[in-house]
Amino acid sequence: MSFNDDEEPPPTKPGPARPGGITGLPTRQVQLSKYHNPNAPMAPNDQQVLLELKGISSAASRAPLDLVAVIDVSGSMEGDKLENAKKALCFIIRKLTDRDRLCIVQFDHEVTRLCPLRCATEAVRADLEALVCGLKARGATNIKAGLETSLRVVNERKLTAGRAANIMLMSDGQHNEGDWDPNTNFDPLNMPVHTFGFGRDHDSIMLGAIAKKSLGGVYNFVDDSDKLTNLSETFSQILAGLVTIIAQDLELTVTPVQGEATIKKVDAGTYQLNTSSDGSSSVTVKFGTLYSTEERSVIVELALSDRTAFDPYRADVAVVQYRFTAQGQQVTSNPERITIDRSWRKPDPDDAPPQLLNEVTRRQHADSIREAMEMADVEKLEDARSKLAEALKALDRIVDPMVDMLRKELLKLLELFTTKETYKKQGRPYAISSLASHGRQRSAARGDAEDVWQHADTIRAAMKMADGGKLHDARNKLAEALKALDRIVNPMADMLRKELLKLLELFKTKETYQKQGRPYAISSLASHDRQRFAARGDPEDVRLFATRRMDTYLEQAKQLDEKPEEKLPSADDDVQEEPEVSQDVPDSPTIGERRTLSVALRVLTAVLSLLAFSIMASARTSGPYRYDVGVNVIVCFYSVAQVLVEIRRLVSPMLRSTSYYWVTLFLDQVLAYLLMSASSAAASRNRLWVSRFGTDPFSSRINTAVWFSFVGFPALSANALISMVNLFSKI
Q1: Distance CA 388, CA 364 (A)
Q2: Residue 331, Cβ neighbours under 10 Å: how many?
Q3: Topology of 591-730 in CATH?
Q4: Considering the entire predicted model, what is its pTM?
Q5: Does residue 613 contact residue 704 with C-beta atoms inside 8 Å?
Q6: Class of domain 43-59+248-350 (CATH, top level)
Q7: Which of 20, 116, 410, 605 has a beta carbon 3.0–4.6 Å from 639's, enabling a disulfide?
């Protein structure tokens, strides 16, 4: 039976209206941030770089969803379990929009596709809920058949362009229809498969392996003993991500600069890594989908080359570029440089950004859980608990970036509030600039250019005391504020601590570990490795990587359980209730436009020069016009070469040294001058010819060729200006 009977979506309607305050500027879907030590010694050394991709576009620009829900209806689902599954499916149906499509597949010892991919219009939603209400439990459990059928539904679709296909697979038991190992006999074909282990008797190892092998899928542990709404709430969390997909086929490429660095290691969790075979030594990470406000982090370890024979300089050590598909179109970012100052200065451990240190600590935390689970699997529960206890102590190393900045600010103020003279010359200006920053909630230059966003009242009070000559009281005020920072709880550290405490509780006995501890640990590792929310028994417990929409849907799932007849807002309605996603101002907002304009101008210059010398050649010019012919030939070949270079830079990340930009600017200026000079000389000689012999076909051709050369001059001059901007942005 073929599954190419998916329904055609209705005509696209205008996107949902957004709240006021939205500008007409184009929105960037994804934003890259780089964190690393800004300085490195001249001797060979290793440096870690944290690269973060964040979805900064509103979910209003999301991809329409093609969702296949695969539900276990075997005999063990009889009773409350099946009723909870029905409620969870009804929540999904009510949240989808006309643009989304849903297919429901049920399996026991057999598999049945209850419906093709159907558009979730109001009328169809009623039909889908009727199908769900008719589900009945019976038979054994054939997870393989259910999964294979869902993959066929997705892969045999007629309509795929711009649509985000995902599979949600829920089971409460063990696969007991034939031998099957998803690690060796399962190919998800780059399809995200999100799995849900319902209850304490499911096969967490199998469901975890299915999700891990897919592209971006996560395994969720749903404990059915504490509360009946766990399944609906867990389904709501995954759905909240699926209806906010703003980027598909997301990938990040890191290329080391030859002679400056080599890549030692790329840590991207369980996402696929590909190393190039073109000699560039670049590494590409394939992430798959990205939700609105979601983040993906990669830690790259670079081995910097020996530069002890050189003077200190600013080194471009690597280049980063990312690509993704949005609304059916391929988007490629401009290459961004990773720049480090190489000098004789001794490295300062405090220079490492807290974002990098925190991410390293989180990954070490995940590795500790992995090692503890391996110990528990061989019944070394005491060793496993000791490992988790060590990880709990290590959480003290996590630093909140904001707290770190505030601490540095207060320490600097304490230093500058020492004497009356120091306070007047440095302390007061520093404090005033700090208050200006707090008042405007933005960064202001304060001598050390640190960004600080709070504690304005404390600084203001201390400054009043210092202005009144009470420096001792002012310093005490600042010291109190410094101690108060220790009471600020880091959200991530708090969640990781909850996670470890829960694992310590579930690793006490063999039975508890097998029924709850292992599923909890597998879902924890799935969340850490994918950097995506996964339920660990209770979706409200640890909210690591949860997005705003997930928080909203969690509350809506609770409301639906309390008032099942109440109408839920659709996914499009939810967009209107969300604030606009905050975006950092890009460093160079016109770099892409500049490169595109440069390519267009160089193509224009090449075409005009080609026409000019072709016309002159066809007129069989000699002697006086050879200068103009020669210059146009050189300009044409030079422009073609530059076009090829720019196109290659758009296709693959490339870095150029400063000398390259100097040479390009020099050649642009020289050739622009020569083109104007040659065109003027040819025009003068042609005018002399006409004055002596009158107008004829020969002079008309020369006149046309001269005009082409003249028009090519401003195009080449504009490129010279672009080359100048490129050079100064480089240095």
Answers
A1: 11
A2: 16
A3: Four Helix Bundle (Hemerythrin (Met), subunit A) (1.20.120)
A4: 0.75
A5: no
A6: mainly beta
A7: 605
- Among 231-235, 399-403, 460-464, 627-631, top mean pLDDT goes to 231-235
> Which residues lie closer than 8 Å to 636 by C-beta, 6 or more apart?
605, 606, 609, 610, 613
Question: 54 - beta bridge partners?
Answer: 31, 295
The span from the CA of 486 to the CA of 75, in Å, is 54
For 299, phi then psi, to 5°, come to -105, 120
Nearest Cα neighbor of 242 from 190, 290, 189 is 290
Query: Measured between alpha carbons, how far is 637 from 648 in angstroms, rounded to an integer?
Result: 17
**Same fold yes or no, 43-59+248-350 and 591-730:** no
691's tokens: 């004055």
Q: Strands of 511-588 (E only): list them.
A: 536-537
Cα dihedral 219/225/230/234 (nearest 10): 0
Give the CA diameter of the chain: 109
- SS3 call for 383: helix
- DSSP state for residue 538 in the 8-state scheme: B
- Relative to beta strand 329-332, strand 313-326 is antiparallel
Q: Return the ∠ at Cα 38 (arms to 35 and 41), rounded to 5°.
A: 135
- Two tokens at 589? 């907002």
Picking from 291, 245, 235, the residue whose alpha carbon sits closest to that of residue 94 is 235
Distance CA 599, CA 642 (A): 8
User: What distance in Å separates the CA atoms of residue 283 and residue 598, rounded to the nearest whole number?
Assistant: 28
Q: What are phi and psi of 443, to 5 degrees?
A: -75, 140
Structure tokens belonging to residue 559: 């409301």
The ranges assigned to domains in the chain are 43-59+248-350, 63-243+540-571, 401-487, 591-730
pLDDT surpasses 50 at 24: no
What's the rounded Cα separation, in Å, for the pair 563 and 691? 96
Decide which of 3.30.9.10, 3.50.50.60, 3.40.50.410, 3.40.50.300 is the CATH code for 63-243+540-571.
Answer: 3.40.50.410
Spatial contact of 135 and 71, defined as CB atoms under 8 Å apart: yes
Per the prediction, the chain carries an average pLDDT of 85
Q: Is the pLDDT of residue 27 over 50?
A: no
Residue 314: strand, helix, or coil: strand
DSSP string, 102-169: EEEEEESSSEEE-S--EE--HHHHHHHHHHHHT----S---HHHHHHHHHHHHHT-S--TT-EEEEEE
- Alpha helices by DSSP H, 185-247: 204-213, 230-242
Residue 84: alpha-carbon gap to chain centroid? 34
Range with lowest mean pLDDT among 130-139, 220-229, 269-278 = 220-229
Amino acid letter for position 266: V
Nearest to 392 by CA among 517, 498, 491: 498
Mean pLDDT of 330-344: 92
Q: Would you state the structure tokens that stand for residue 157, as one six-digit string?
A: 């679709």
Q: Which pair of tokens denotes residue 319?
A: 């280049």
Least confident of 11-20, 27-36, 554-563: 11-20
Residue matched to tokens 């490295």:
347
Question: Which residue in this structure is represented by tokens 């949005």?
Answer: 326
Residue 299: both structure tokens together:
């830690």
18: closest CA among 54, 63, 59, 64? 59
- Two tokens at 520? 């909890």
Task: Give the Cα separation of 221 and 27 in Å (integer).
Answer: 36
Helices (H), 547-590: 548-562, 571-577
Identify the residue with better confidence: 670 or 17.
670
Contacts of residue 60, defined as CB under 8 A and 6 or more positions apart, other chains included, come to 15, 16, 18, 575
- Tell me the pLDDT band of 26, cut-offs 50, 70 and 90: very low
290-304, 430-444, 469-483, 597-611: which is most confident? 290-304
